[in-house]
Design a protein that fits this description.
By secondary structure, this protein is of the alpha+beta class. It is built from eight helices and six strands, in the order ββββαααααααββα.
Length: about 220
């Protein structure tokens, strides 16, 4: 894993704020007079891949929920005219269903939370297989679906907390991409997927005249 390098445009020393994902570190300029203000980590640089992924997924789950929590039924269901993107509700449902299937089905080799936890009867949707079709639309009972999403996030967190180094290196074959280690599946597929679709949801909310992400205002 490459050493941390931070590009800090303002110059000077930067001390990380306690309580965020990297605690108790001090970042200092690599060399005096370097106009790019490159920094290297000094002090505790022992955060491993698994811990980083835990913090990353936790943060992304929180941001997704912040983006979706205030959506009205109209905002969730509206598909913009002449657009090639699905509705907010469809994008959100696809994101959560995908994580559930990939983590609990593919990676863990078990049953998705949606089925094991009896969420199908509560939500009233069939869990789709594969990607999201361009014309796929859903009517979401948002409060219930957010509870299901929280259960998926909890299962992901519990898995990462218990996973050994060997488990992180185990190779899985997602089918839609080349085989890769579990750690890469989280970093390059699951985290990317969450962040990308959360951005889509915030943009779709914005063009409908509502705040895309409430906690940024």
């Amino acid at each position: 894993m490459r050493a941390w390098r931070i590009l800090w445009p303002m110059g000077g020393d930067f001390r990380h704020t306690p309580g965020t994902s990297v605690s108790g570190v001090k970042l200092k300029r690599r060399a005096a007079g370097d106009n790019r203000s490159q920094f290297r980590m000094k002090g505790d640089n022992s955060m491993d891949v698994k811990t980083t992924l835990q913090h990353q997924m936790q943060s992304l789950h929180g941001t997704m929920d912040a983006a979706i929590c205030d959506c009205s039924a109209e905002v969730l269901a509206r598909k913009l005219p002449n657009s090639t993107i699905n509705s907010v509700g469809a994008v959100y449902a696809h994101t959560v269903f995908s994580e559930d299937g990939l983590v609990n089905g593919l990676i863990r080799g078990g049953t998705p939370v949606y089925i094991a936890g009896g969420w199908a009867a509560k939500v009233g949707l069939e869990m789709p297989q594969g990607g999201m079709e361009p014309d796929w639309n859903v009517t979401l009972p948002l409060d219930v679906f957010r509870q299901y999403a929280a259960a998926v996030a909890q299962a992901t967190g519990e898995y990462l907390a218990s996973a050994s180094d060997a488990e992180m290196e185990r190779v899985v074959d997602p089918g839609f991409a080349p085989p890769m280690p579990v750690r890469t599946m989280f970093a390059n597929v699951l985290a990317w997927h969450l962040a990308t679709h959360q951005g889509e949801i915030s943009a779709l909310k914005g063009v409908q005249g509502v705040d895309g992400l409430v906690f940024t205002h």
